């Protein structure tokens, strides 16, 4: 065994994507694996880990992306859980019936701009630093960038009213590990396509 | 200000109950403020007390914490219920996440439409006895210790006891195929802080009834 973490999932974004992002941000090389499992599973450090949140927490802790103490962890956890809720809302759009999709998407975009993005804009404004917590890159920053890019795929101008999130996006995208992940040929997965939905429905429902 | 954590939620179990359990298990006294109307919730949002406009919210150590998992992780870390290192944390996290998935099904049951209730209950029984309980039965059997992780009381033990009791309220014989879990239930129920929490007069909330469901629907505008 090589020692590199090994990801088991379908060859798509889904629940593995935040894990790919965080490993990439930490500069960790992985084996991609097309083997299907019912939930994300990551072989790492002799463990077969399941449960997305548990996996993300472990990676963040191991690679020092989880703040310096309990209180910074608490902030990171709150920010990350909010982003996870927004992520869930967005990905659930793919599985809405065709006649409900547009309305649902509008609701999601509204939540993004009135409930979630204002929080992070305000955090950045409040301390004036480049990163959300403790003036240092953490999993919260990685996840925020991931979600910003995801939302922009549906609505490219979503950050129009959020100048600090715009500069956050630019700065964070230029962090070398992340910049590399954003380039073609990385393990980042493409947006879910319409044509994939029947296959994914079959696997997950 | 008393210095005790202050829990802000509806007067019922819902998403706050695991937090009540964990604080109680850690021997931490806390206060509660019950939200009874939509207007009260709206005021909390307007006053900027709720980061994502949602409950639960816990005032603790100068923070207004939201997001159930974030709150539970903080409490577990603060009161040494989160294992001794990253790897024990990882196990605890995995177990807790699995339990949370099952607990979510139980929590949502009273909100099912009448015609779906029997089906959802059957689904809970199936998942509990085929997917979740076997995992913990096996963990306990393999190491032969009283606690799930690291031979020491942790968040995972508290949450497992909570879900066992919650499922048993609906399916009394659910542990019949799980002797290790039966012994675990007895032992954990006798941990002094937990024993106290299980007695009448504690902060533990009763099972959800129709009144609770109606309150939730009206406060969160789910009608």
Automatic annotation (TrEMBL), chain A:
A single GO molecular function term of this UniProt record: glutathione transferase activity
Protein name in the entry: glutathione transferase
Annotated InterPro entries: Glutathione-S-Trfase_C-like, Glutathione-S-Trfase_C_sf, Glutathione_S-Trfase, Glutathione_S-Trfase_N, GST_alpha, GST_C, GST_superfamily, Thioredoxin-like_sf
Limits of the GST N-terminal domain: 3-67
Family according to the record: Belongs to the GST superfamily. Alpha family.
Transferase listed as a keyword: yes
One Pfam family recorded for the sequence: GST_C_3
Residue span, GST C-terminal domain: 69-192
Keyword annotations: Transferase
One annotated GO biological process: glutathione metabolic process
EC class: transferase
From TrEMBL, chain B:
Positions of the GST N-terminal domain: 3-83
EC number: 2.5.1.18
One GO MF term: glutathione transferase activity
Top-level EC class as recorded in UniProt: transferase
CDD domains from the UniProt entry: GST_C_Alpha
Keywords: Transferase
InterPro entries in UniProt: Glutathione-S-Trfase_C-like, Glutathione-S-Trfase_C_sf, Glutathione_S-Trfase, Glutathione_S-Trfase_N, GST_alpha, GST_C, GST_superfamily, Thioredoxin-like_sf
Residues of the GST C-terminal domain: 85-209
Matching Gene3D superfamilies: 1.20.1050.10, Glutaredoxin
GO biological process terms held by the UniProt record: glutathione metabolic process; xenobiotic metabolic process
Highest taxon listed in the record's lineage: Eukaryota
PROSITE patterns: GST_CTER, GST_NTER
Similarity comment: Belongs to the GST superfamily. Alpha family.
UniProt name for this protein: glutathione transferase
Gene assigned in the entry: LOC106030435
């Amino acid at each position: 065994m090589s020692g590199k973490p090994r990801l088991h999932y379908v060859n798509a974004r889904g629940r593995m994507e935040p894990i790919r992002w965080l490993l990439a941000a930490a500069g960790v090389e992985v084996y991609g694996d097309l083997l299907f499992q019912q939930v994300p599973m990551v072989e790492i450090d002799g463990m077969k880990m399941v449960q997305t949140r548990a996996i993300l927490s472990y990676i963040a802790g191991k690679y020092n992306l989880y703040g310096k103490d309990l209180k910074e962890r608490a902030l990171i956890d709150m920010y990350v859980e909010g982003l996870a809720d927004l992520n869930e809302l967005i990905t659930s759009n793919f599985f809405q019936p065709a006649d409900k999709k547009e309305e649902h998407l509008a609701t999601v975009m509204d939540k993004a701009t009135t409930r979630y993005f204002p929080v992070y804009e305000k955090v950045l404004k409040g301390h004036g630093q480049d990163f959300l917590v403790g003036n240092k890159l953490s999993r919260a920053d990685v996840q925020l960038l991931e979600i910003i890019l995801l939302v922009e795929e549906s609505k490219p101008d979503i950050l129009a009213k959020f100048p600090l999130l715009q500069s956050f996006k630019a700065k964070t995208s230029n962090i070398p590990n992340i910049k590399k992940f954003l380039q073609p040929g990385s393990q980042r997965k493409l947006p879910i396509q319409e044509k994939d939905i029947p296959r994914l429905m079959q696997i997950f429902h | 200000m008393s210095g005790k954590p202050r829990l802000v939620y509806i007067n019922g179990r819902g998403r706050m109950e695991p937090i009540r359990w964990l604080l109680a298990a850690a021997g931490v006294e806390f206060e509660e403020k019950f939200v009874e109307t939509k207007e009260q919730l709206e005021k909390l949002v307007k006053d900027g007390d709720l980061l994502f406009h949602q409950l639960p919210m816990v005032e603790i150590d100068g923070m207004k914490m939201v997001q159930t998992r974030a709150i539970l992780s903080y409490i577990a870390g603060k009161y040494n219920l989160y294992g001794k290192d990253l790897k024990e944390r990882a196990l605890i996290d995995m177990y807790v996440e699995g339990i949370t998935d099952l607990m979510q099904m139980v929590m949502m049951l009273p909100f099912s439409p009448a015609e779906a209730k029997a089906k959802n209950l059957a689904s809970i029984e199936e998942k509990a006895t085929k997917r979740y309980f076997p995992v913990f039965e096996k963990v306990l059997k393999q190491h032969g210790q009283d606690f799930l992780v690291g031979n020491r009381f942790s968040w995972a033990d508290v949450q497992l006891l909570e879900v066992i009791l919650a499922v048993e309220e609906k399916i009394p014989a659910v542990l019949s195929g799980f002797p290790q879990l039966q012994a675990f239930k007895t032992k954990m129920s006798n941990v002094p802080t937990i024993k106290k929490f299980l007695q009448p007069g504690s902060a533990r909330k009763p099972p959800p009834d129709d009144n609770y469901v109606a309150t939730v629907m009206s406060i969160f505008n789910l009608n």
